[in-house]
Amino acid sequence: MEFDGARTALNQEREKLVRQLEELGATESGDLRSDLEFGDGFADAGAATAERTELLGLVESLKGQLKSVDEALVKIENGSYGLCNKCGQPIPPVRLEARPASVLCFDCKNQRR
User: Fold this and answer.
1) Count of C-beta atoms within a 10 Å radius of residue 50
2) pLDDT higher for 66 or 34?
3) CATH number for 26
């Protein structure tokens, strides 16, 4: 089965996520660049900590999304794309079209909640 459309969408999503990480001052692996400034004044310490915490949360979220995209790309390459990671059943095409990085079918996704 060919998944060229999914591969294209996933590669575009990957590029977007990497670009967002870079804009936040992080590398593709999610490490923050050493040249980021959060303020160095004592009065600003609380604000800088809050800003850094928020930034780290955003970076972690993007890293998770990037991991899902990379996993889906690997699954395309090894022929297991479109199969649920939990039950092994096919993931409905409508789900893959809406979210190409999906690794769980509707039923298994709903069980995780």
Assistant:
1) 11
2) 66
3) 1.20.120.910
How many whole angstroms separate alpha carbon 41 and alpha carbon 55? Answer: 19
* Helix, strand or coil, per DSSP, at residue 26: strand
The count of structural domains within the chain is 1
CA 8 to chain centre: 16
Separation of CA 97 from chain center? 17
Read off the pLDDT of residues 28-65 as tens digits, 9 standing for 90 and up.
888 877 666 655 555 566 666 777 788 889 999 999 99
CA distance 23 to 34: 14
Q: What is the CA radius of gyration of the chain?
A: 18
The pLDDT assigned to 60 comes to 93
Name the token pair of 75. 């699954």
Task: Write out the residue range of the structural domain in which residue 73 sits.
Answer: 4-111
pLDDT in tens, 71-85: 999 999 999 999 999
| d(C-alpha 96, C-alpha 101), whole Å | 7
Predicted TM-score (pTM) of the model is: 0.79
